[in-house]
Amino acid sequence: MDSYLCSLIDQLEQEHTLSASQWIQLLNGRTPELAAYLFEKSRRAQIRFYGHTVYIRGLIEFTNYCKNNCYYCGIRSGNTHAHRYRLTKEDILACCADGYKLGFRTFVLQGGEDPWYTTDRLSDLVHTIRTMYPDCAITLSTGEATKAEYQQLFDAGADRFLLRHETHNADHYQQLHPPRLLASHRQQCLWDLKEIGYQVGTGFMVGSPGQTSKHLAEDLLFLKELNPQMVGIGPFIPHHDTPFAAQKAGTLELTLFLLGLIRLMLPKVLLPATTALGTIAPNGRELGILSGANVVMPNLSPKQVRGDYLLYDNKISTDAEAAECRAELEQRMQSIGYQVITDRGDSLNITP
Predict the structure, then answer these.
(1) Sign of dihedral through CA atoms 132, 134, 137, 138?
(2) What is this structure's pTM?
(3) How far is Cα 82 from Cα 64, in angstroms, rounded to an integer?
(4) How far, in Å, CA of 186 to CA of 169, rounded?
(5) Of 311, 269, 301, nearest to 72 (Cα)?
(6) What percent of the chain has pLDDT over 70?
(7) Burial code of 79-89, b = ≥16 C-beta within 10 A, e = fewer?
(8) What are the C-alpha distances in Å from 243 to residues 84, 170, 177, 178, 344?
């Protein structure tokens, strides 16, 4: 095992930062032995702040309409084969009611950038959930908006906002998105959210078309600068009805390695083991937890629409992903020495 690369991991553990060139060296020089060395430290950091606990969030995928045409996404506006749906307010409240009975105390409302769901409609929905469930956290993942719109949703009762930056590098961003979407604008949205007072989550795809170690180093430097409360990363998985249908998927190995690095860089952050990890490997989410992750998001959406929120091919949409199978999820986490808990699970990475 390369002693210099081990020393970089030691430095990251102690100082929580590396330079761009050091990030690149670590990424390019990684080996199974180095990963094992990293994961021992990243697990120790996770356990130090969160113990052997895994937070679960109730995910409600409430619309797969989207005005954007991102080249990697299965619900892109240009995909005429997608079976579109939009849950009503009553549908969403029914999901919340079911989730609350199951013990969930965080609801994550995720959807495409659906023009029907205006800020006023979303604000009304958020306000209703906040009134009905004052002890629950409300997380939104609804894409880019103006600062005033984000403020309105915050005032209505939203606590958290998830907005992956996808890739920090502007040129690489344009390889993945149509010209009207800009990396700089998406990043400004994150700064706006943070200034308003949201607990902010961001993240990036691993192994997206054209991605290099230099791009990943820029992503890690941006995470350090932003200092979010949550970071969600997952492997790129192609969708058959997109321009990237023939591209190779990102790997489990690199995604896990990056999870470990992020845990050491931001030891108090909330770090999900994503659905995409469980999609590319049957035990992907367990491996994610063992790499330093501490959040999973079972699906509270109605069963009849779960298969339609298809961002990528072969996405888990039934069985163990369903909230009704929480017992199985708990058993799987217990099998690796972790306990599922259902409270709000706020991030400890709160900046003054």
Answers:
(1) positive
(2) 0.94
(3) 9
(4) 12
(5) 311
(6) 94
(7) beebeebebee
(8) 20, 19, 11, 12, 39
Apex CA 106: angle with CA 160 and CA 111, to 5°? 65
Q: Are strands 339-341 and 234-235 parallel, antiparallel or unpaired?
A: unpaired
Q: Cα–Cα distance between 67 and 75 in angstroms, integer?
A: 9
Q: How far apart are alpha carbons 183 and 128 in whole angstroms?
A: 33
CA torsion 122-124-128-133 (nearest 10°) is 40
CB 317 within 8 A of CB 306: yes
Other CB atoms within 10 A of residue 248 CB = 11
Question: Quick one: pLDDT band at residue 314, thresholds 50, 70, 90?
Answer: low
Residues 245, 118: Cα–Cα separation, whole Å: 31
Write out the two tokens for 144.
Answer: 């880019």
d(CA 39, CA 35): 6
pLDDT digits (tens, 9 = 90+) for 164-214: 999 999 999 999 999 999 999 999 999 999 999 999 999 999 999 999 999
Burial class of residue 256, CB neighbours in 10 A (0-12, 13-18, 19+): buried
Cα 38 from Cα 352, distance rounded (Å): 29
279 vs 138: which has the higher pLDDT: 138
- What three-state secondary structure class fits 236? coil
Tokens of 166: 């996808």
> Number of helices and strands (H, E) in the chain?
14, 11
pLDDT level of residue 233 (50, 70, 90 thresholds) = very high
Going by C-alpha positions, the residue among 264, 249, 285, 247 that lies closest to residue 26 is 264
Average pLDDT over residues 271-278: 86
